[in-house]
């Protein structure tokens, strides 16, 4: 039987610190927590192996880069094949995040697109036209991220 590894307060502190600054070094993490770089290294390996830390990334300012940030709330008809729809969405260049959801929408899809409205319309149509079991799509343009905290 596989051994179950527990997450403790130090692991949670590491995740919290990295969610604020993913560029922290093992040395900086060790100093902040009051432990050694070697222990941080072992814990980081464990957290990555367990899938708790899935990715290190940045949060760009899309507006400054000349892009629009759009969220599509997609409601599917009952019986829709969600997994195959997700596979199809993963192949779309402008689709950056795909989330399964409970509530009004079955899927929440984050899209980064050039600011040209005709191009945005074309991108949204190319995304939604491939989903045969769509019931409804809500489109939201994100104008500003006021707070972004992952943990």
TrEMBL record:
Pfam families: HTH_24. GO terms for biological process: response to amino acid. GO terms for molecular function: sequence-specific DNA binding. Keywords: DNA-binding, Transcription, Transcription regulation. InterPro entries: ArsR-like_HTH, AsnC-type_HTH_dom, Tscrpt_reg_AsnC-like, WH-like_DNA-bd_sf, WH_DNA-bd_sf. Residues 7-68 form the HTH asnC-type domain. PANTHER family: LEUCINE-RESPONSIVE REGULATORY PROTEIN, TRANSCRIPTIONAL REGULATOR AZLB. GO terms for cellular component: cytosol. PROSITE patterns: HTH_ASNC_2. It comes from the Archaea. It comes from Thermococcus gammatolerans (strain DSM 15229 / JCM 11827 / EJ3). The keyword Transcription regulation applies. SUPFAM superfamilies: Winged helix' DNA-binding domain. The keyword Transcription applies. This is Transcription regulator protein, Lrp-Asn family.
């Amino acid at each position: 039987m596989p051994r179950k590894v527990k997450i403790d307060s130090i692991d949670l502190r590491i995740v919290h610190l990295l969610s604020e600054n993913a560029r922290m070094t093992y040395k900086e993490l060790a100093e902040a927590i009051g432990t050694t770089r070697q222990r941080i290294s072992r814990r980081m390996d464990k957290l990555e192996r367990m899938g708790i830390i899935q990715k290190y990334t940045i949060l760009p300012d899309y507006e400054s880069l000349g892009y629009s940030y759009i969220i599509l709330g997609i409601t599917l008809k009952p019986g829709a094949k969600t997994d195959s729809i997700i596979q199809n969405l993963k192949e779309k260049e402008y689709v950056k995040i795909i989330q399964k959801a409970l509530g009004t929408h079955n899927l929440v899809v984050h899209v980064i697109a050039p600011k040209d409205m005709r191009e945005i319309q074309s991108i949204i149509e190319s995304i939604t036209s491939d989903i045969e079991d769509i019931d409804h799509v809500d489109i939201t343009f994100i104008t500003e991220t006021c707070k972004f905290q992952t943990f």
